[in-house]
Amino acid sequence: MMLCDAAQVADGKLFILGGGWSLIGPDPMPSAIAIKVDVGWHEATRPHHWELFLMDEDGRPVIVEGADGPQPIEVRGDFEVGRPEGVPEGSPVDVAVAVNFSPLPLPYNTRFTWRLTIDGESENDWQLAFSTRSPRELPEE
User: Which residue range is the domain that position 40 belongs to?
Assistant: First the structure.
């Protein structure tokens, strides 16, 4: 997983713009998460469900005001991968996922973590932490 300015998937590959940051703001700006999943050979040809959750520094879901009232920032999707011809049996199979976000109204000077689950399971390295900058103070005239 990688935080970036923008990402897309084409021909099974991730295309990443402005990747690898962990500090954003202070103004809200577009962002993305690029994800490469290694699907085990025995897990290929089965449907899988993934979820991303944005958590605050206390481990609580980040809530923003939406069209339907307050909502947690969450994204979900599904993937299924076949066993490509020519790949040795037992090899993991790559799946690329790109999730793009419009500017998120996040508080200044705060730490956040994106947490990924696949089929309801998560690992310690399926997290991306980042911080928001404090606004710059204007110089006195």
Answer: 2-132
